[in-house]
Design brief:
There is one protein chain. This protein is about 35% helix and about 25% strand. By secondary structure, the chain is of the alpha/beta class. It has one domain: 4-Layer Sandwich (Metallo-beta-lactamase, Chain A). A seven-stranded mixed sheet has the order 1-2-3-4-5-6-7. A six-stranded mixed sheet has the order 8-9-10-11-14-15, with no helix packed on it. A two-stranded antiparallel ribbon has the order 12-13. Strand 8 and strand 9 form a beta hairpin. Helix 6 runs antiparallel to helix 7 and helix 8 packs across helix 9. The radius of gyration is 18 Å and the shape is globular. The termini are far apart. The model has no long low-confidence stretch (mean pLDDT about 95).
């Protein structure tokens, strides 16, 4: 199957083969006039696939002006440092709170390894990015891409360093993980540790709805309708309540019990997503404990 598909005119989704599986993770190529941008970069393991996609689309590497990163989790940003030496005109746009982790990814890699355990091998390496090629984006800041404008939108909840990117001329909203996972037509929560924040996330969803987007562009995975923002709000609330019912169990028992519930209810819990469910349970458990401690 071709890993590159045209989602809309001038907008292409590249399947990065996340976890070795199709249609779990992607990166977008947005072309406008004689310029191009990436939205998210996948892991460093996706480098050659993305460079080949540019070549297949007839885009020269020096046409890439921006790499817009929704956040610095390695499945979204880990490939940026590997790609930059090949993209001489590109700068990386990221939330100010994430910029330092691109310049020195040591703590980010350690945190990812702790959170993902045996799946860490799928996350590749994180190469440091020269500070002068990192642009910390302010909320509402816009970036020119040919005749288009790409607006950074502060979007905490999944992580405090999360941005979405909105193209108002076309109604495109690149959601990163701010509207959850959208896999094979179904929304799944992604409430991972260490910084899941329900209240911040509900505020983010309201802000995204106020933009009145025409299409949502999920990193995991592909386009979706704007109504999914409201559906994700309801899913978040019910998911937190589900985990709350198990919060007095040890973490591993809570994860096992919830996975059994999900399986019985027909949710996808196979090898490609079981680790995501487990991390999402742990993220909510940490959130609930912070709330109980007054945090």
């Amino acid at each position: 199957m071709n890993p590159v598909r045209e989602v809309l005119p001038g907008l292409f989704l590249v399947d990065i083969g996340h976890f070795g599986e199709p249609e779990l993770g992607g990166a977008y190529i947005l072309a406008a006039d004689a310029e191009a941008a990436l939205v998210d970069s996948g892991t460093s393991l996706a480098k050659e696939r993305l460079l080949q996609a540019l070549a297949d689309l007839g885009l020269a590497r020096d046409q890439v002006r921006w790499i817009f990163l929704t956040h610095v989790h390695l499945d979204h940003a880990g490939g940026a440092g590997a790609l930059l030496p090949e993209l001489p005109q590109a700068r990386v746009v990221v939330h100010p709170r994430g910029a330092k982790h691109l310049v020195d990814p040591t703590k980010l890699v350690a945190s990812t390894q702790s959170a993902t355990g045996p799946r860490f091998r799928f996350y590749g390496q994180a190469f440091p990015i020269p500070e002068e090629r990192v642009h910390p984006a302010q909320d509402g800041e816009t970036f020119a891409l040919g005749a288009l404008r790409v607006q950074a939108v502060d979007a905490p909840g999944h992580a405090p360093h999360h941005l979405c990117f909105f193209v108002p001329e076309r109604g495109l909203l690149f959601t990163g993980d701010a509207a959850g996972l959208y896999l094979k037509g179904r929304l799944l929560p992604t409430t991972v540790p260490p910084s899941f924040d329900l209240e911040a996330w509900l505020g983010t969803l309201a802000r995204l709805e106020a933009l009145a987007p025409k299409v949502l562009l999920f990193t995991h995975f592909g386009p979706g309708e704007p109504r999914l923002l409201g559906q994700y709000r309801e899913l978040l609330l019910s998911w937190v309540e589900r985990v709350r019912r198990h919060k007095d169990l040890p973490d591993e028992e809570a994860v096992a019990a919830i996975l059994e519930e999900l399986k019985a209810e027909g949710w996808p819990v196979g090898p490609g997503v079981s680790g995501d469910w487990s991390m999402s349970v742990r993220g909510v458990l940490q959130y609930l404990r912070r709330k109980e401690a007054g945090g």
